[in-house]
Amino acid sequence: MILQKYILPLGGTESDNTAIKGIARAYISKGNHIITSSIEHPAILESCKSLEAEGFKVTYLPVDSNGYINLNELKRSITSSTTLISIMYANNEIGTIQPLHAISKIAKEYNVLFHTDAVQAGGVLPLDVEELGVDSLSLSAHKFYGPKGVGVLYLKNGVMLNKFMTGGHQERGIRAGTENVAGIVGTAKALELAYQNLEINNFKIKKLRDYCLNRIVNTFPNVKVNGGITNRLPGNCNISFKNINGNKLLQRLDANGICLSTGSACSSELATPSHVLSAIKTPKEYIHGSLRITIGKNNTKEEIDYLFYCLKKILQFD
Ligand SMILES: *Cc1c(COP(=O)(O)O)cnc(C)c1O
């Protein structure tokens, strides 16, 4: 079914699943190949895996040691049966921002659709879908201080999507069922608030992040920053301590009232190393000792100083 420019009220995982599976299946008569990156969120990676089980071919583009895809490699991987490219706007573990403009230019040149998982960019980076040149984009409200379990799937004019929910005729038959009105209103309000004072907030957040990063790097000898620093979300700080068990460190910090994560918030209980840290070829002495410090608009310098004090105590650098 062909949609007019359209927005569906779905959470991050729901949006990614709907876009990847819905678009790939709708364009099957054109081809069965899709391209994504190796550092996507599981919502994208697992959707691709389930498409592979249906007979689709998926290319998982590698990233360099800073966490960025290579545009020439992207071009080279496009074939006559490629229908969709899905590359995330910003990474949820290391915060690296991919070159969306350049990707959308390539997608247009080769007549391939372009979806972006923009969940980490929502409320932080510019989201003008026309300016970005994307055909499909997903957001999650709780990532920008909005309600949980709801978000946005944007679809450009004319993008075809297979029905993923059958039933009544809500949302032009694409998403049958009564909408979560409270969630939709909450998402819209949260998004509006997030883009007020955006530059001031981002500036303040980045200053705190850099302060945090510099203090850690200048104090501890065996520490490594994960991911490139130039094109990166302002509040993301991901570091690894050599030969340290990240989960134990996390527990000790938690006992001191500090809530952090070893990698992605969703999978931190898993013992296998992060697929993102593996993809950027983090050395094995560092891969289990990662700590992701996410700074938001309500964090203060005093909190960073307290974190630093606790880290010194726990790592015995007093
Ligand atoms: C959080 C996150 C998701 C999943 O969003 P939910 O709304 O929690 O399902 C998807 N992609 C990225 C990049 C995320 O950070």
Question: CATH superfamily of the largest domain, called what?
Answer: Type I PLP-dependent aspartate aminotransferase-like (Major domain)
CATH architecture of the largest domain: 3-Layer(aba) Sandwich
The CATH class of the largest domain is identified as Alpha Beta
Assign a percent range to the helix content. 25-40%
Total helical elements: 11
Bound molecules: pyridoxal-5'-phosphate
N-to-C series of helices and strands? EHEHEHEHEHEEHHEEHHHEH
Largest sheet: 7 strands, mixed
Mean pLDDT: 93
Sum up the overall morphology in one term: globular
Strand order of the largest sheet: 1-7-6-5-4-2-3
Structural category is alpha/beta
Q: Which radius of gyration do the C-alpha atoms yield? A: 20 Å
Please explain how this structure is put together.
The protein is an alpha/beta fold. Helices cover 37% and strands 15% of the residues. The strands form two sheets. Strands 1-7-6-5-4-2-3 form a seven-stranded mixed β-sheet, sandwiched between helices. A three-stranded antiparallel β-sheet has the order 8-9-10. The radius of gyration is 20 Å and the shape is globular. Bound molecules: pyridoxal-5'-phosphate. The site of pyridoxal-5'-phosphate has 14 residues, from helix 1. Pyridoxal-5'-phosphate is lined by residues 11-13, 16, 41, 43, 88, 92, 117, 119-120, 140, 143, 151.
